[in-house]
């Protein structure tokens, strides 16, 4: 593939997106774009009362991700510098459709459609999924204060939403490879062999050797 690699890692809360993005960035020596999470001033309140704080929370995320993606397009991709991001802009709709009321969702979607028009499009998506048990275990392990009030039902619903959206995405965008990996069977943080499986699949899919300065770690 001749285009500059722009890889995004997606999946539900706690599945390991940021950890994998960091490991891949270190291996390929690509710029890592990390989403803003804990900086969202509404997130803690959102997990305590979704109905009350959903619109403010989702708008904060949308505006920040829009700014981040515009910046990496201007400062990295346009200068032929490969990028790995630990999110795809599509996640905004996944969360918004789960948490917003119909009237607010309608407003949100209109804003989303306008903002995403000129954003860069990834040429590969890595989709991580895992069982609810694994996700809860990992959320507890990272021990973020703002995530202590997340309900199991909300996490389960999000996982289901992600599965549906990724299936639909593959149908609508067959030219963008989606590489799917299970967090239940692969521990890419603790097991280097598991990480090598993912790295090999990425290299095979995008033929990105010309754009990498790979680490021997």
UniProtKB/TrEMBL annotation:
Keyword vocabulary terms for this entry: ATP-binding, Kinase, Nucleotide-binding, Transferase
- CDD domains, per the entry: dNK (cd01673)
**Superkingdom of this entry's organism?**
Bacteria
GO MF terms listed in the record are: ATP binding; deoxynucleoside kinase activity
Which family is this protein grouped under?
A: Belongs to the DCK/DGK family.
- What's the short name of a Pfam family annotated to this entry? dNK
The name on file for this protein is Deoxynucleoside kinase
Can you give the residue ranges of the Deoxynucleoside kinase domain? 7-205
Taxonomic path:
Bacteria, Bacillati, Bacillota, Bacilli, Bacillales
InterPro entries xrefs = DCK/DGK, Deoxyribonucleoside_kinase, DNK_dom, P-loop_NTPase
- A single GO cellular-component term on record: cytoplasm
Xref: Gene3D superfamilies: P-loop containing nucleotide triphosphate hydrolases (3.40.50.300)
Q: Where does ATP bind?
A: 11-19, 138-142, 186-188
Catalytic residues at: 86
């Amino acid at each position: 593939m001749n285009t500059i690699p722009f890889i995004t890692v997606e999946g539900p809360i706690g599945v390991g997106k940021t950890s994998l993005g960091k490991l891949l960035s270190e291996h390929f020596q690509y710029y890592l774009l990390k989403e803003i999470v804990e900086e969202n001033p509404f997130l803690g309140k959102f997990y305590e009362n979704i109905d009350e704080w959903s619109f403010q929370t989702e708008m904060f995320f949308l505006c920040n991700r829009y700014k981040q993606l515009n910046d990496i397009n201007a400062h990295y991709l346009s200068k032929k510098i490969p990028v790995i991001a630990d999110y795809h802009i599509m996640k905004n709709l996944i969360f918004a459709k789960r948490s917003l009321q119909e009237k607010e969702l309608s407003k949100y979607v209109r804003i989303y459609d306008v903002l995403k028009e000129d954003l860069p499009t990834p040429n590969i998506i890595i989709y991580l999924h895992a069982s609810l048990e694994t996700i809860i275990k990992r959320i507890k392990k990272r021990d973020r204060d703002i995530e202590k009030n997340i309900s199991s039902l909300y996490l389960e619903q999000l996982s289901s939403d992600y599965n549906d959206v990724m299936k639909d995405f593959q149908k609508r965008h067959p030219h963008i490879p989606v590489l799917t990996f299970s967090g239940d069977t692969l521990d890419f943080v603790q097991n280097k062999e598991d990480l090598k499986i993912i790295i090999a699949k990425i290299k095979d899919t995008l033929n990105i050797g010309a754009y990498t300065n790979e680490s021997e770690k």
